[in-house]
Design a protein that fits this description.
alpha+beta, Alpha-lytic protease prodomain-like, Alpha-Beta Plaits, 2 domains, four-stranded mixed sheet, 8 helices, 4 strands, about 70% helix, Protein p34
Length: about 300
């Protein structure tokens, strides 16, 4: 089992523990705002399960039907997480409405608030770990899961402060207003998760920082070549696909040109684990006198 898959499985366990704590906090207080916080955690568990499936599928090696690998499976999971977040927001809005129409009084419980605060701290620690690991290993599914949890932490802290204010002021409609605000924040989070995932499915280019790094490695390790142009990249989960044309002297042997390509590919592989490089070699009369100048 890969480390990435173990991290994804850990999200399910963390989600179940946090869900149990938040449900307990709701039972102790009867707060619609705390119920909305628990409803979002149900989505966390479901999205963690979807992430596990996607990470497992994305780790499968390339085959005859998928010669470029299965890395994009993680983007589908991230889109699914976004959809689940939207569904959670709808449930939260419903809970807020019920809170306004239900005459049941709230029960002040310091224990309930403390339990919810503990759940938020657990989520905070795990969300930071997911985001760091996901970015370091180019995993959009784990990164999206971490960002969602981080949003959950923010809303949990806001809800805790608001519910405490309800108990202090005695103005119970504020509880339902807080629940509705949580729903709006959750919707905003879902929009961003889906937007980033769709960019990956549409073969968006690597970031400008990554492109600068690639250009530098081609320039520094392409000794013997003249220039490189038509650099194209696309991101697919943990894999970065890189293509470019490398111009060499027309009389250079195929073996020598191949050695230059190997040197560039090795440099990129060392600097960008998971990169998959395709180089098209051209003679000097194909030079565009633009792009990347080889040092």
């Amino acid at each position: 089992m890969t480390l990435r898959l173990r991290i994804a499985l850990g999200s399910i366990g963390i989600g179940v523990v946090v869900l149990g704590l938040k449900v307990a906090a709701y039972w102790l207080t009867g707060s619609a705002a705390l119920l909305s916080d628990a409803l979002e955690t149900i989505v966390n568990v479901a999205s963690a399960l979807a992430t596990v499936i996607a990470v497992w599928f994305a780790s499968k090696p390339a085959d005859s039907n998928h010669p470029y690998g299965h890395d994009k499976a993680e983007y589908f999971a991230a889109v699914l997480v976004g959809v689940m977040i939207v569904l959670a927001a709808i449930s939260i809005f419903y809970a807020a409405w019920e809170g306004l129409t239900d005459d049941r009084p709230l029960t002040y419980s310091l224990t309930g608030l403390g339990i919810n605060a503990l759940a938020a701290l657990i989520n905070l620690a795990w969300a930071r770990h997911l985001i760091r690991f996901g970015r370091r290993n180019s995993s959009p599914a784990l990164t999206a899961d971490g960002k969602h949890l981080m949003t959950d932490v923010g809303t949990s802290l806001g809800v805790l402060g608001g519910v405490g204010l309800v108990f202090i002021t005695g103005w119970e409609p504020l509880d339902s207003i807080l629940a509705a605000l949580v729903g709006i924040l959750v919707l905003w989070s879902g929009w961003h998760v889906m937007k980033e995932s769709v960019s990956g499915l549409m073969d968006e280019s690597a970031s400008e920082d990554t492109l600068t790094k690639i250009r530098a490695m081609i320039s520094d390790h392409g000794e013997g070549a003249l220039e490189a142009h038509d650099l194209r990249t696309r991101q697919a989960g943990s894999a970065t696909f890189i293509e470019f044309h490398l111009v060499v002297p027309g009389k250079m042997t195929v073996e020598t040109a191949h050695d230059i390509c190997d040197r560039i590919e090795e440099a990129i592989a060392d600097g960008m684990p998971g990169a998959r490089v395709t180089i098209h070699v051209e003679p000097d009369h194909k030079a565009k006198h633009s792009g990347i100048v080889v040092l």
